[in-house]
Each structure stands twice: as C-alpha cells, then as structure tokens.
Amino acid sequence: MAMKNELIQLFQETRINSLQICKHLAIEDYGLQPVEFVSPPKWHLGHTTWFFEAFFLSRKEGYTEYHPDFSFVFNSYYESLGQKILRSERGNLSRPTVQNVLEYRKYVDEHVANYLQEKELTDKEIKIIETGIHHEKQHQELLYTDIKYSLGTQALKPIYDEKFKETIQQEPLQWLSVEKGLYSVGHADEGFCYDNETPQHQVYLNDFFISSRLVSNAEYIEFIEDGGYQNVLLWHAEAWDWLQNNNISFPLYWQKEEGEYYSYQLSGYQQIEAHSPVTHISYYEAFAFAQWKKMRLPTEFEWEVACKKFNYGARWEWTESAYQPYPGYQKAEGALGEYNGKFMVNQKVLRGHSIVTSPQHSRPTYRNFFHPHLRWQFTGIRLAK
Amino acid sequence: MAMKNELIQLFQETRINSLQICKHLAIEDYGLQPVEFVSPPKWHLGHTTWFFEAFFLSRKEGYTEYHPDFSFVFNSYYESLGQKILRSERGNLSRPTVQNVLEYRKYVDEHVANYLQEKELTDKEIKIIETGIHHEKQHQELLYTDIKYSLGTQALKPIYDEKFKETIQQEPLQWLSVEKGLYSVGHADEGFCYDNETPQHQVYLNDFFISSRLVSNAEYIEFIEDGGYQNVLLWHAEAWDWLQNNNISFPLYWQKEEGEYYSYQLSGYQQIEAHSPVTHISYYEAFAFAQWKKMRLPTEFEWEVACKKFNYGARWEWTESAYQPYPGYQKAEGALGEYNGKFMVNQKVLRGHSIVTSPQHSRPTYRNFFHPHLRWQFTGIRLAK
Amino acid sequence: MAMKNELIQLFQETRINSLQICKHLAIEDYGLQPVEFVSPPKWHLGHTTWFFEAFFLSRKEGYTEYHPDFSFVFNSYYESLGQKILRSERGNLSRPTVQNVLEYRKYVDEHVANYLQEKELTDKEIKIIETGIHHEKQHQELLYTDIKYSLGTQALKPIYDEKFKETIQQEPLQWLSVEKGLYSVGHADEGFCYDNETPQHQVYLNDFFISSRLVSNAEYIEFIEDGGYQNVLLWHAEAWDWLQNNNISFPLYWQKEEGEYYSYQLSGYQQIEAHSPVTHISYYEAFAFAQWKKMRLPTEFEWEVACKKFNYGARWEWTESAYQPYPGYQKAEGALGEYNGKFMVNQKVLRGHSIVTSPQHSRPTYRNFFHPHLRWQFTGIRLAK
Amino acid sequence: MAMKNELIQLFQETRINSLQICKHLAIEDYGLQPVEFVSPPKWHLGHTTWFFEAFFLSRKEGYTEYHPDFSFVFNSYYESLGQKILRSERGNLSRPTVQNVLEYRKYVDEHVANYLQEKELTDKEIKIIETGIHHEKQHQELLYTDIKYSLGTQALKPIYDEKFKETIQQEPLQWLSVEKGLYSVGHADEGFCYDNETPQHQVYLNDFFISSRLVSNAEYIEFIEDGGYQNVLLWHAEAWDWLQNNNISFPLYWQKEEGEYYSYQLSGYQQIEAHSPVTHISYYEAFAFAQWKKMRLPTEFEWEVACKKFNYGARWEWTESAYQPYPGYQKAEGALGEYNGKFMVNQKVLRGHSIVTSPQHSRPTYRNFFHPHLRWQFTGIRLAK
C-alpha cells in the first residue's frame, strides 16, 4: 500500500512540476518550434499526457478518449501507434490552445489518479505508470532546453527567469586513476531503469586517468584563441564539414563582442563566467578540444566505473562511446519497444546529468544519447588520458 | 481642410479594421507561419505599424522610436532600410507579444494622428500617409489569406468565423465582344494609384470575346474528372514538374471523400458549392483549364478594356500577362522604390479584386501579381477567346 | 524538284556540321554534364538523330529502329513520347559510346536520305524534315555553349580551338530613334519559322531610342568597379537573392587577378578585351546595368522594329519582354506542340543571334528565350531609352 | 635485400593490377561519377599515383612534379595538403584524358622504382611505400564497386566482364559456439596493418553462437516476402526514414519481374541465384533481417575471435560495432594521420573481405567501415545469437 501511495504521489508531483517549469512563459511562447529538433512547450505538455492516455487509460474498459484528434497531434515517434503529424509541423498548431491542453492534462490526471486509487494494480500496470513518470521527467529536461533554444535564438532574446542560475563553481583539477581489470557495468538493482541500461555485464578496462572536474569556459576560450576551430587536424571529417557548412566557431549561444565572450542564458544575455564549465558544445567540439589537449574523452564504461570518485551533474558529459545495445539486450515488446532500441545507431552516449535534469532522473548507469552535432542540451567535457 | 479630415478618418478606419479582422483569433493563432510565404497575423499588425514609423514618424524631429529592435523585427523587404530578420523566422518570434504589438500600434497611431491634426501637411507627407494606408489595406487582404492558410492546414482545421461566406452566386455565361483597335490603359485620374499602374499608354488589341462570369466549381470538376491533371499536353513544362513534385491533383484546400468534393473555408470544412467560382488555383491550373476548354486567359489589357462590361470582385483573375513595367515606368526614389519595381520578373498579373480585398482598394487599373504556382490568394479564372 | 534537292542538301550539310563542331574534342569530352542545364556533346549528337527517327522514320512502314533503348536515352522533353531518362542523368551514360552514336547517325542519315530521294514528299513531311534541320541547328549552338561550359569550368581549363575568335570589333555608339506608331511584328513571309513567331500582329510603340552597338566590356567593368553588384536598389528582388546565394560579382567565366580581368574563352583563358561586347551575363545583370546607366532594355517589339537600323549577331540580346504567346497563337498538334508553347512562362525573350548561332538560323522575328538567371549562352546588352 | 626486392615486386604488381581491372572498360567509362560516393576509374588511377607522388616523391630532392595541377585534381581528402576539387566534381573532368593519366602513372612508377632500386631505404620510407601499396589495393576494390555502380545504374546496363563470377557456393549452416572469457583483439604481429587495428587489447566476451555461413538470397527473399521492409518494428528510426525517402524495398541492383528476382552483376543483368549470399545490403537491412530472425549481428570482436572457425571472404560482413578507436589508439603524425582516425564517427565496422578485395589485403584484424546506409560494396550478413 505504501508503495501505491508513493506511486500516486510521484505521479502527481511529476505532473505538477511540468506546469511549474512553464509558469514563466507567455501564451505566445508555448507554440514555438524554431527548428525541427525542438518541440513547443505546449506539445511537451500534451505529449506527456497522451503517453498516459495511449499506453494506460485507452486500454481500460469504459475510458473515453478526451479528443479523437489528439493522438494524431501528440504522438511523437511511435510508428506502430498510427498516423501522426510530421515532427516539423508541431509549431504550426495553434489549436488545441494552451487552455485546451491544460484541460486535457486535468482530464487525464483525474482518470489516472482515480484508477490508481481504486484498482489493484498489476506489475505491468505499475511498470507502465513508472515509465510514464520517467518519460515525463525526460520531457521536463527537454522543456528547459527547448525553451532556452526558442527564446535564446529570438531577436529580442527574452529572459526566461532572472533567478535561474546556470553557472557552477568547480574545485581544482585532480587526475583520478583507475586500475585495469574486469568491471561490471549496467543496471542491476531493484530500482527503475530503462531497457538500454541492461543487462549488467562485464567489460575489461585498461589503466586510465579521469579528470575530477569539467573543462571550464576559460580553458575552452584558450582552445578558441589558439585557432582550434581552424585546425582541420583536430576534427573528424564530418565535423569539419559541419563547421564549414554552419559557420561555427563558438559554442551554441556564444557571441564575441569587443574581445569579450557573451552568451544567452535562461536568466538573459550576459558575459561568460570563466570558471564555470563550458556548455552547449557538440561531441565534435568535445572531441576536438580533447585532441588539442592531447587527451581524450572517457568511454561510457570508464565513466561508469570511475564516477563515484568525482562530482557530476552540472552538465551531461560526452563520452567516446557510440550508443549500442549491451550484450544480450532485449527490447520491450510492442510500441514501448520503440522507446530506446530504435535509436541505437549514429549517436553518442552522454553520462551523468545536468542542472536541468529532473531530480531522481539520474543514475550512474543512465545512458543519454544524442547525435554528435547537437548542442542544445546542457552538455560539457570531462577529459581522460 | 475637408481633405485633411478625410485623410485622418481614413487612417483611423484602416487601422481599426486590421484589428477587426483579428478579433476572431486566439492568442496562439497570432504567431503562425506554416510556410515561408505566409506571415503571422501579429507580424502583419506590427509591420503595417512599422511602415508608418519608418517612412513617416522617424523622419520627424523629436520622435522617439517605440522600441529599438522593432525595425529589425518588422521590416519586410526594404533592403535599403537596414538589417531585418529572415522572412522564414517571422513565426519564431513569441516576443513582442500580441499585447506589446497592440501597444505599439496605439503608440504609433497616436503620434500619427497628432501630427496630422497639428501640422500643415506637405504633398509628400500626404502621399506617404496615403501609401501607408493602402499598404495596410493590402496587408488586410493578406491577413485573411494567411489566416486561412494557417488555420486550414492544421490537423484540427479550426473555424475562423462561422458567418464568413466565401461562395458567390453568378449569372449565366455570356460572351462579351470587344472590337480591335487602339486603347488607352493604365491609371490617369487624380485618385491614388501605385507606380506600377503608370504611365497611361496605348495598346493595340485584336477582336476578342471575354466571359461574363468566372469558371465555376462544377466546370472545374469536369476538368478534374476528364483527367486534366494527368494530361501533360495541357500544362507548361514547369507546371508539370510542379504537379509531380507536390502531388497536386486538386485546387488548394480541396479533398475528395467518397466521390464528393470538400474544401476548407473560413467558416469551416465543408462540401464544395457547384456554382460558385473555382478558387485557390494557380496560374498554371488556370492556363491548363483554358487549354482544355480550347480557350485562353485574357491579357491584362483585354481585361482592363473589357471590365466595365462585366461584374468582377469575387476572385482575383489570373491573366496571361507577365508582370512587367509599362513603357516609361519610373520607380519611386529611395526605399519606396522597392515597393513594386523589384518584383517585375517571373510573376503573372491578376486583375480585379476578391471578397477579402479591402473596400476602396481596387481600381480597373490595379495590377496584382504573384508567382504562377501560388494559390493561397482568392484566385479564379475568367476565359477569353 | 529543285526544292527537294535543296532540302536534301540542307539536311546533309546540317548533319555534317554537327560533327565538325565536335572534331576538336577528345573522346572523354563527349560525355560531360557538369550541371543539369548542360548536355553532353554525345547526347546532342544522339538526340538530334533521334528527332528524325521519332518524328519521321518511325512513322514509315518497314523502318526498323536502330536500338530499342535509344528512345529512352535520347528523348529530351517530349512527355507525350514515352519514358525518358532524367535530364540530370545524361552525363552518367558511358554507353552508347561515341562510336555507337556515330553509327546511329549514319544509319538514320542513310534512311532519311533514301526516303527523301525515293519518295514523293507531302507538305507535312517537308515541314517535319525542315523542323528537324532547324532543331539540329539550335543544338549546334548548344553544342558550342555546352562545350564551353564543360571545358571552361574544369580545373585545367582545356582549350577547345585556339583559332576560335570570340571578340568582336564594334563601331562608335549612336542613338537611333524610332517614332511612335502602330507596327506589324511577327513572321509573315514564306520562309521557315517557329510557331512562336506567329501570327503577325500589330503593336503600338512610343517614341524611343536604341543603341547602335552593344555594351562593351570596358563599360561593364565601370559598373563593376562602381559597386554595381553591391547596390541592392539596382536589382530585382530575385536577382539579389541569386547574387547572394551564388556569390556572384562578375559575368560567367570571369576572374580578377591583380587588378586585371580575365575570362575563359573557347581559345583558352585570357585577358578581357576592353572594346568587345560584354558576354555571358544574365537578364538580371543586363537589367541592373541598364538601371545603373539610368536607361533600360528594349522590348522585343522595339528591337524587331528597329533592328534594320543596326548590326546585330555578335551576342543574343536580352529584352525586357517576358516570353508569352502572340495574340492568336496556336501551338502545333501532338508532340511537336511541345516544342515551344510549354515554355512560355518565367522566361525572357532574347533577340538577334550570336557568333555561335548556325548560319541561316536567325531572322528578325526569331524569339530565343531563357530563364533570367542563365548565362552560359553568348548573351549581351543593347540599351534603349 | 630480399625484402627490398619483394617491396619493388609488390609495388609493380600492384600498379599493374589496377590497370588490369580497367582493361574491360571503354574510354567513356573512365570518367563516370553517377553519385558523389562513387569516383571515376580514371580518378582512382590518378589518385593512387598522386599518393606516391605527394607522400614520397615530392619529398625527394630533385624530383619534378609531373603536372602542377594534378595535386588539385587528385587529392582526395587530405585537408592538410592544400586545395582540392570538390569530390562531386570528379566526374566533370574530361582532362587529363585517360591517356594522360596512363602517362602520369608511368612517370611516377619509373621514379619510384628507380628510387627504390638505387637508394638505401629508411624504415619510414619503407612504411610509406607499403602504405601506398595498401592504399592502392583498397582503391582496386573501389574500382570494382564503383565500376559496378556506374555501369549497373545506366539505362543500357552494360556488361563489365562476362566471365566475372559473383555467386558463391556455401556449405550447410552450422552454429559455432565460443565460450565467454577475456580475449586479445587487434593487430600484434610483424606484418603490415593500419593504425586503426592497434593497439592489441583485451575484451571480455559472453558466450555466443555464430553462423558458419552467410545469409543466402533465398533466406533474404523470405524476409522480403514476409513484409520485412514494411514492418517498422524491425528497423532503426533512421533506417525507416531512409527506406521511405528512397523507396527501398530490395537490395541494391535488385528488381522483381513477374514474380522472379533479378539483379545486375558484373557479368550482366540476370536472375538471382538462391543459395549464393545476399549482397549489396546496408547495415540497416542486415540489422532488420537479424531482428526478423530474432537473432543479431556479431560484434567486431566476436567476429575476430570466432573467425578461425569459419570460411569468410565472399562478402564484407556487417558487425554491430560502431567504428571507434581502440583503447590507446594513436593516429599517425601529419597528413597520414588523416587516413583513418578522422572517420571514427557515425560508421559501422565490417570484417572479413569480399571477392573483389585484393589478395593480401585482408587480415583477421582488418577493420573496414562504412556509413550504415551504404550498399554499393559487396556486403553480406552473418548472424549471431
């Protein structure tokens, strides 16, 4: 019983938290989609609600869908659950309005809460609700990063929240050593995890050193000023094309004015803080920086084995590891099987979490993943050698 | 004095009317830009305001710009007036909010009205205010067509105004004849006109017949059902590529369901009315239809010479004429010279006006122009032979 | 009978001439297609042959097609004559080899010549042979311009023919005047013409002046050095985008090295000759130059009426006229009707001819047409005012 | 001395072999580049020659470059060695002609051979010559695959060599088992290897089974006919988009006619042989096939450990492993460092070799790599479980 009450409480807190993140927004901000990889806040609010409707409520007898077209509008990428609008069209929907979406949330929340309170839950039902909660926590992080992109790339650079602090104090650098040997990696305990963290398995690691802190803005500025963005030998071939085609010579949101570096942050446009970790860099930039330092990025397993020795959580940390299935990986049956497995190509693993990751939504075994050129997450660099 | 009062009244009516058109919208609708050629309603409201600020108020001593960034945001295509946001970015601006833009309108309206009331106006000043008014009337038509596009292409196809009637009753077809000879075309009287309507000049026309009414939906459905969209010999080469690349086999907004034709209209999605003029067709489609009928479109001069013999104003009427300067055409000096002349290539002239054209914003000499593939205006077909 | 012998002789001369043009080429040159609008020399040789096969021989009893796949390979744009390779694929065909194509030419030439010699010819047959001959003469010009493009854009800039002289001496400038009035334009005499030159009809022209010679390289260099390519007010809106997107600041084939202007010519890369006509400019550039001079381009009818007063034939001369059907224009029935009419949109008329136009392939009424941004023809500028 | 003679002999055999591969071609075939990832045979012949010139001869005193522009033309991707033509432009070069390139080869061959015979060679020099030889062997494989693509996608589907046999007999399927444990992988012996095969290191593997033979055409046809290409749950998200955008429902070169499967092979267009290995499939297809079989692809290390138990060499075998650096990997200094390391992102490793791989150009540790959607190599599928 305790557990059931905890589940209900976690459900309700999570649902409220998504609304808290949006409370700084104007109605007009809810519909923005300046690039395809960003979704409008309104869409996140609707999609996370649809997730509970599609995977849970709609399978219960007697449940009436809130609106017949919402599945079309709020499905993200579950190809097996029917037609859906093109991802690039999300920003072109003025309807449902923000008010409608809030009502949709209320309707679904009440139905889920009632069901949870009134019924015996099967293990499978608990699993689905848990997945829905964790899914929403992932979208809470995307709410922050998508809002930052949508506001920060506008002409007027509007402030999200003056009090939102992105910078972080870091301790002096130490090199932490790990000895070669066989290690267990992957998730094993009772708590929630995604399928991509399993099964636990053994890997052999060589001796290595890993940095106790992230690369700072000051260090990254050295790289810039040493011509790092112009030295082809530091970059992957695809990275070099990406730099040229997009005219890139700074991290995302950065500008240089009269010799000083500035960036857009959620609290507004401001000067770069030298000692805070460099942020909003792609894997390509992380790799090139490491090359320039004559070091390298850790693999995801080196990171996982070493992570108890250092503080993390300021920025998602790019690793050298491609996102691939663990030995013996089994994806879930049916539509939920589309959650992770189908993205296991052409992406890089990031470990840790960031200041906009939901609390409770991080584990030493957690595997985040993005294409190597993407930068709108709060990403950073930890070096190894 | 009378004239000055009229100018003030016209200014104020025009400014109010733009707001009237928008009163059916939700806040969320004001920011939509589903394709590059459509602009958000909010942008139209801001841009028409900026026009008065940039070309009139900002040249007056003592005037303080409402906001330093609004010129960047609300300039449309005046390359000579400084930097501006990319056209495709208009939909990515949540700020200024709708409320801000309404305040901006109020600020500019008051300053213009005060100036008009208090000062002696030069001819040049009157000309600029008149141009600003006519410019805004053009944007009022774009408000209708852009709103239609932005709502009508959404998944939920929201209604703009249930009472808005697009269909038109037409009288039976008659063939009106015009005799060959030399005719004067172009604008000559005292009233307002654009530079592209001048100078008046002579053209020689052969004998021709022109239809007393527009092609109806029923006639166009015959063309569709006779395989018109599949018969390559009816189409221009570029038209044929356009059909194939965009999978086009109907006018814009049309769908066929179980043998019946439907379309989105400002009053909602509904069945096609057989006798109303076919609407939302490109020049390419108008031309192919005429070929299929073994007739042709009139030239813009045939249209102008014949127009007093028939009713027009339901739809903009595609002509066979390319948009080119009249003999002796002089474009205005400076930024206003960018208004018309720089578009005189690769476009076709449309004559008349449509049900969403602002009253007073039409003349027999008025030359509208669009690229031959565009369809989101209220366009129609009048045949000649 | 005389006439029939003349036809046979004209046929044979024309067929031989195409081969003469190619005699300077290496085998490797025959297959080049560096951009979609250019075709490989081998393709021109095959296509002009296919034209006689498809429109003439294949309609004769007892004729055996040379190769069942050649229609697929050598059809250009006759949508009504069956499937064809994509235009952009012409350069990807190494087979048929050059040798095969020469044999194909021989086979078709013999069959046509035999038929012409042995049979009574109907008027329609004569018309088709004539059209085929004129069609091939058009392709002879394209052979020159496509070869120039294909060689001149290569890294090694190979010479086509050292003796080929592109430059032209011009006499001093005079302004020739034409009086206003009604004039007849279009083709009327017995000789061959294309359907787009008919019917002859009347146009009214205002008084105008037209230049006795073309704009020279020296004059155009003045325009360049006065910042013509950077002054937005001189350009059409689409022209301005074209300049920016393609980084254009010179005519095609030009380069500036240490203050001097050079260009690739068929006789090799060399310094610009100041007094020769500027060449390889687009309509957009011709228009902008005229704006800068505070003059204009003539219309095609002004040109046609005035042309007996000046020398022409060095360069195709851009006119201000869009390519449109004449009043009463009827396109030919069937596939031949695809020859001209279907291109009558979004193109500009050029008049006269150029140094690479086939002899006998020009008339005062001849209407050439190209999209306004294209420059690989030998185009030039004649001013009017 | 023996070793030096062997090196000279290997150099000469290798150089001759490239010409042998091309002896079936017409001159016109040497210049083909139908898609960007394919290079013309002439370019391969020039580029492999340039490699010896740029990395070896040009660093010797007294050597005169064959032609000042050939470096621009024949450099492939060595950004640090100066300007080069765009990859997509290789097919637009008719000059140098085939004859010129053969003379270039002769010139360089003589200079290299003379140097090798006359001088004491340093270890570094031997290493460079060896690398040049292995580099040319890689291009010999590309000659086959690029020629196949360039001929097989033409309208006339010309035969390369009637006697060239692509099909392979395979023995019945057995499942070979490997026990879990720590294994050494990577290159360690004295022979030549690329930097990406080093350093040798330890990996831990679980128990697994691997198939003794490749998946056959008959098995793959079952997958096709069971709707494999239409079942979204079998595919990666990016693979699904790739299928839709490119209309893919067969391996490359396949067509279905009246219920039978055909493909283009180097000996011509012909019916599929049921028992031969399926070929020209992408990683995406290999993965989806394995999903459908409820099995998986081996990792590159499973493959390397197991490979002595089975026959390989008919087709390159896709593995599940992303192409990444080995622990402790050091790329070579300078331009040669661009050889492998800069491609270590977004690609998948293939192991083994294929029927068009040069003899001596395969090792159990050899790591080939391609983007997951590419199919023009002779690729195949070996299953694991």
Automatic annotation (TrEMBL), chains A, B, C, D:
The keyword Iron applies. Residues 11-124 form the DinB-like domain. Pathway: Amino-acid biosynthesis; ergothioneine biosynthesis. One of its GO terms (biological process) is ergothioneine biosynthetic process. It comes from the Bacteria. Keywords: Iron, Oxidoreductase. Residues 174-308, 313-385 form the Sulfatase-modifying factor enzyme-like domain. This is Ergothioneine biosynthesis protein EgtB. It comes from Psychroflexus salis.
